[in-house]
């Protein structure tokens, strides 16, 4: 009986550790079984700054990561119009790490594709449209996929909410900085 209790306790600890690894992005389960895909975003921001400036602000940390962002972004590989980067995000008490390819299509498009993270599939893009009069419309749209049918879909909905909050926070900072630079005349 004691051995059975020990086995159950060890199984529960192992399951908890596996869950932590999954949620934190250190383990990606990509089986394709019961794959469900749900939309991410379709959020837009109207930014009182030229499109080229907004693009440069998004692209800049991937070219040369400022000291202030080094705990949130680590570029692993750079080449041509693409980078492979780890993004570290605090979600509640957890530090979640995603690894993504980021492909630049200046000045109108930036694509992200998940390589490793809490879900097996994320593809997203940021489109920058010149709205005239020195303004830019920045639109974010994407999709998030999970495996294991309804259970994965439930988990994916929670990941999608955090993902969207993270994007909204980041793009809010881009909007603020782009408008500050445009207003002050600095690039």
Would you spell out the secondary-structure blueprint of this structure?
Blueprint: H1 2-23, E1 36-47, H2 51-63, E2 73-79, E3 82-91, E4 94-105, E5 109-116, E6 121-132, E7 135-146, H3 149-184
Antiparallel strand pairs: 1-7, 2-3, 3-4, 4-5, 5-6, 6-7
Helix pairs in contact: 2-3
Protein architecture, described:
The protein is an alpha+beta fold. The protein has a single domain (about 1-185), classed as START domain (Alpha-D-Glucose-1,6-Bisphosphate, Chain A, domain 4, 2-Layer Sandwich), CATH 3.30.530. It has three helices and seven strands; from the N terminus they run αβαββββββα. The chain has helices spanning about 1-25, 50-65, 150-185, and strands at about 35-45, 75-80, 80-90, 95-105, 110-115, 120-130, 135-145. The protein has a seven-stranded antiparallel β-sheet, covered by helices on one side. A hairpin with a 4-residue loop joins strand 5 (about 110-115) and strand 6 (about 120-130). Helix 2 packs across helix 3. The model has no long low-confidence stretch (mean pLDDT about 90).
